[in-house]
Amino acid sequence: MSDIQQPTIERKKRVLSCIQPTGVPTLGNYFGALRNWVKMQDEFDCFYAVADLHAITVRQDPAKFRQQIMETFALLMAIGLDPEKSLLFVQSQVPAHAQLSWLLSCCTQFGELSRMTQFKDKSAKHADNINLGLFSYPTLMAADILLYQPEYVPVGADQKQHCELTRNIAERFNSIYGNTFVVPEPYIMKTGARVRSLQDPTKKMSKSDENVNAFISLKDDKDTIIRKFRRAVTDSEARVYYGEGKDGINNLMEIYGAIVGKTMQEIEQEFEGKGYGDFKSAVGEAVAGELTPIQERLQTLLGDKAQLEQLMRTGAEHASYVAGRTLAKAQKKMGFYQFK
Ligand code: ATP
Ligand code: LTN
To answer: Which of 211, 244, 287, 320 is the most buried (most CB within 10 A)?
Structure first.
């Protein structure tokens, strides 16, 4: 061994996040999660997945579902993720997720899962199919995360509770079986953390809303975007300012600010003396300007299925290697018999 001091190479901090292929992602998914994933890809060691196993907690049409998995995977690249920099994969193609989920479900309490607001919301919405997977969804999400030992999980504000539960599960496992998992933190950006429905600004914008005017899908064309913003629910005051009781306008101002990079105050100045009509058109134009290049890239990517499949395969292989090591470590700590 030479006694020359080696430079310390700092390991990049790791990040993991997922999106469900339950439909075309919305502007909420984009500002709350996807756009931040792109911003993080140079500074962090990033793992991003299409969470198809999560999507079947709500009934999916098999043919449409298969298409949506491919489209969501392509969309990750269309928004600017580079498979050379970030590891992109499909959850069900890495069997360790389902395997670790079982181990973790035996470290999760019934009471903890019963308190999850997403479970309560989704079971009210799908009262005819309150299945076991919908209930245990957070243990699968904990497995998705813990398998990759990330420090951060970039998500929208609605996922904070699930991330807290993941931390509790990891800490519990570590204290019972010895240090195994990195305890991750949610990474919630201020801008765009909770984009609201255009039709009911007290609710979050959701891709599964039955009213298509409530959300902007990343595939909406310019005319549709302009029309949906024109119809957005606001108030009767007709003066653009950020304030209490102005949920609709606040939401539009936040969306606009997230694109043009202006503060709420700067937006108020820009639209001083102008009405809601002008403001809504400006928001629509800005959003269309942001989405058009993404849509063009998506079309190009979807034109080469063989290449997409190849990228999916490579992503699954790399992710399986990393996940497999963590799974084996957890199994060993729990006392499962392993061959030498
Ligand atoms: P669904 O409507 O099918 O329940 P979803 O629209 O909530 O789905 P997911 O695939 O579950 O979307 O979420 C992907 C990411 O987008 C998550 O990090 C989530 O926090 C974020 N997200 C979803 N909706 C919003 C929103 N309205 N504002 C900000 N972030 C959001
Ligand atoms: N539960 C998330 C999607 C999701 C996820 C994850 C997010 C599944 N697994 C792991 C971050 C990390 C949702 O409903 N938005």
So the answer is: 287
Is pTM, for the whole model, over 0.85?
A: yes
Pairing of strands 152-154, 87-90: unpaired
246 is catalytic: no
Cβ 207 under 6 angstroms from ligand 2 = no
pLDDT tens digit string along 298-338? 999 999 999 999 999 999 999 999 999 999 999 999 999 99
Written as six digits, the tokens of 295 are: 């849509």
Q: 10 Å Cβ neighbour count for 99? A: 17
Question: Which atom of ligand 2 is nearest the CA belonging to 137?
Answer: 1
Partner residues linked to 15 by β-bridges? 46, 152
Identify which of 233, 224, 229 has the alpha carbon closest to the alpha carbon of residue 203.
Answer: 233
Number of helices (H) and strands (E) in the chain: give both, helices first: 14, 5
Whether residue 40 has pLDDT greater than 90:
yes
CA dist 252 → 38, 97, 158, 174, 205 (Å): 23, 38, 19, 44, 12
- Contact predicate 330/338, CB 8 Å: no
Task: Tell me the best of 22, 31, 40, 54 to mutate to test the pocket of ligand 2, counting ligand atoms within 8 Å of each CB and taking the most.
Answer: 54
Is-catalytic flag, 280? no
**122 belongs to the catalytic site:** yes
If DSSP codes are grouped into helix, strand and coil, which group holds residue 154? strand
